[in-house]
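Encode chain A's predicted structure.
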Amino acid sequence: MKRGKLFFMAAGVFALSLVFLSGCGKTDSAKEEAPQYENALEVLNTVVKAYEQEDLFAMYGGNQENAVMDEPGKFDISKTDELVHTLGLPKEQAAEIDDAASMVHMMNTNTFTGAAYHLKDEKKKEEFAEAVKSNLLANQWVCGQPDTVLILDVGGGYVITAYGQAEIMKLFLTNATNALSGATVLVEAPIG
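Encoded structure for chain A:
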């Protein structure tokens, strides 16, 4: 009988030591977790893949020198004027990014413009979102005005900005939040 009690006590001590030792040597998994996306282009491509074929619109991606048809494209972040005029990025925020990609409706930028950015400092995402929102709301629109501005936090330092017609924006938001695990809305506001 004493042997049985001794066995259970030893087993209990062993189990407790495993519990305590299992925490040793571990670090915060959120800090070590690799980014979910390799680059901004992959973020937008993930969203586009979520579209049903009949809902996909004619688009081009990238900056003027590197434009691609019918898909998102990498945007050269050294082209600050294009970032400002095509994507609606405030000029002062260009220094805050180290990667970008875009997808723009073939009709015009006001119909739909989407961009994914990687921020150098992920902690500045709210400040970045507010600056983009303020810039788009203050814009003097030519050739019609977009209905909505949308900014999403994708995680890993990636942020999506988009503006355009209400129906296109609604579908974009649905596809983005379905395709990008953990994406959250930072801004969703009417323009005008």
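The chain has one domain: 36-190.
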